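Honest question from a wet-lab person: if I give you the sequences of every part of a complex, can you actually get the arrangement of the whole thing, not just the pieces? Trying it with mine:
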Amino acid sequence: MSDALLNPANPANVFACRNLHVFVKDGDQEKEIVRGVDLTVQRGQKHALMGPNGSGKSTLAAALMGHPSYRVEGEIWLNGERVDALEPHERARRGMFLSFQYPVAVPGVTVANFLRASLAARRGTEIPVRAFRQELNEAFATMGIDPSFITRYLNDGFSGGEKKKLEILQMLLLKPAFSLLDETDSGLDIDALKVVSDGINQASGPDNGLLLVTHYQRILNHVQPDVVHVFMSGRLVRTGGMELVTALEERGYDWLTDEAAVAEGSRT
Amino acid sequence: MSETTTTNTTRGQLTAINDDYTARYGFHDPEDYFLKAPKGLNHEVVEMISRKKNEPDWMRAVRHAALDTFRAKPMPRWGDNESLDSIDFENIHYYIKPKGEQATDWNDVPDQIKKTFDRLGIPEAERKFLAGVTAQYESEVVYHSIREDLTKLGVIFMDMDSALREHPEIVRKWFGKIIPTGDNKFSALNTAVWSGGSFIYVPKGVKVDIPLQAYFRINAENMGQFERTLIIADEDSSVHYIEGCTAPTYSSDSLHSAVVELVAMDRAHIRYTTIQNWSVNVYNLVTKRAHAYTDSVVEWVDGNLGSKLTMKYPAIVLKGERAHGEVLSIAFAGHGQHQDAGAKMTHAAPNTTSRIISKSISKDDGRSSYRGLVRVNRGATGCKTSVECDALLIGENAISDTYPTMDVAESDVRVEHEARVSKVGEEQLFYLQSRGLDPDKARLMIVNGFIEPFVKELPMEYAVELNRLIELEMEGSVG
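Yes, you can. This is the full assembly:
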């Protein structure tokens, strides 16, 4: 990467974080979950973040979106602008998106009302009912979701696959600049995985970027990432391309664990 | 349909609407009355009310006896004692008669009162979606109308005072039979000084398919409003009655203590909907009970938003086989408010069924209490009952408590009980915020979702109104 591109404010970059540390309350103490991460996503790029369970991947994704449970140090950049002091809804309006691993149910709130409110917030203007219907129908068709879901309560009684499809449907509608996809592949059967991957690919374009958090290769065969990071014990321990995915699939994470330990040792 | 409704509440009106209760409902008219009883409760006042109304002797005797019962009965000690003890019964006007006679033409209502009800949207509602309306101002019903076709079918809908004059035999037969004078201290008080309220009789087989509505308005400071309502749905009939209530905001207290008696004869269906939105200086102490005969259905749909203290437990006695009773209620307790509400269900016949759904929202230092009693009498075999209490807390100081009691004398009874208390969840808020909704809007959406099962039971116009009220209550809430 050229030096100019390392500048987070470079217009070619849609997202960047610098020296990112994330802390969570642990009794009276704080525990550091993310321990200094630098990451730059250029427009048009898809990045994958792979790591074993418990490595802090989901924490990283939620903290980037501004989850109130975490204290964050370091810089978060979106579209050339610092957003780390902004509230989650302000980041969302500027084009950040998080597809949740476990989307929460909001009983009594219909999918239609929720989507319409979200769209209005993202676009800064109300969407006429007719136009909204049209957009919604297309997105539902793309994601293979039954139109009757618009009157269902948000994520309430949805299966795992339905929830994930609805997450990606929101990505399609909200047209984020930068998407964090947290284990979007977990709990999906082959068919659902295909639909969800297709949705992600359709939502991706030359102007936006994404970071796909996963610990399986499966989804990466559908959503071909340009850059692959390995995240362990709160740090990026390796960055490469698809060959890294193959290596992980064959050898697991252990060989990197050893390397990470060595790196750890060399730091202290 | 639901989409349009909720869109109204999610369209960023949080900031657009900046009036509050005081501006919208809390205004008051200058006092200009035909008669205003001096403050205080005694036999002279009771006598005066009865004489002014030209009542038959039996009713006057009932009133005087009720005053003695009221005095003899101790205050209930199982609720909000502190708040109840602060009621000064001698600082209340027990009867105020506005100027003018009861009108059946809106134009004949005195200007000032007409303006008030116009402002509250009453005549408009009547034009749009009601089959009949009464409007009570202080102690008397000032306007009443009913669709002619219903009158032709024999439906009676009028204020209780007129009913006592025009249908004395029905009134005498049922008055105080569902809720006896001595049922509790406040039913005794109401019986002594009652005035106004609705009387409805629906003849056999008649289905009144659009709602009848009464609107209750307190205007004077330190006013006591004691309406008395009696609804009789004869065999195979059905009726939906709606009441709404508001009052001006004063610094000193007013008292609203109604008695509502319902009788659902065999296979009849009564739905009784209340949207109570008293100002926060009103004590709202109401006794409501229904008798449900064979195969009948009675539903109380009860929304309590305003008042300082509400104590209200709509009751249904399932007296006939297979009768079904339902109480669906929401309570919203904001700053300085205590909503002590619930339900009472008595299974007095075999194979009767009942369902209680209670939802409460407490915000700031508001307190909501669910108090419920389900009783299954000996011999009432094969009954089913379910109770579901949901409480939502907004903020660190909000309080919710539940006092569910089950008293089951038979063994083959199916009882379900569920109680949940939740905070407006951090994960729900974060999820909605991550989609661009600001925290106020997100919180409002969660609250509206929470009460949705209640709102969808309301006629459209009321659903919109309720959503709007919740929105006002939620303004500037700190999560």
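Two things worth pointing out. The mean pLDDT of chain B is 88. Chain B touches chain A through 31 residues (CB under 8 Å).
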